[in-house]
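Following up on my earlier thread - several people asked me to post the actual chain instead of describing it. Fair enough. Here it is, all 89 residues.
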Amino acid sequence: MKLVQLAKRVAESQKNGREMDKLTLSNPELTVNQAYEIQKLSINETITGDNKFIGWKMGLTSKAKQQQVGVEEAIYGRLTSAMELTNQY
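Reply from S.P.:
Thanks for posting it. Predicted structure:
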């Protein structure tokens, strides 16, 4: 499967708020560099005139959580205006 197709799948899942399986389950040959390319492509697919980039999110920032999920470093992602919660509780 091409990286562009995977990126579109990620973007569509995020747009619809649907959970999806990790891409490496169906594409175990993916490299870290390819994963970052998929991330870049999916965010480019997501950002539009109505959905702007507004910031960053971090995950897996503790060593314990990294070990639990089998990674060696924190992860980050982009936030867009469509993800922003504007209701105050």
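The mean pLDDT is 90. That should answer part of your original question.
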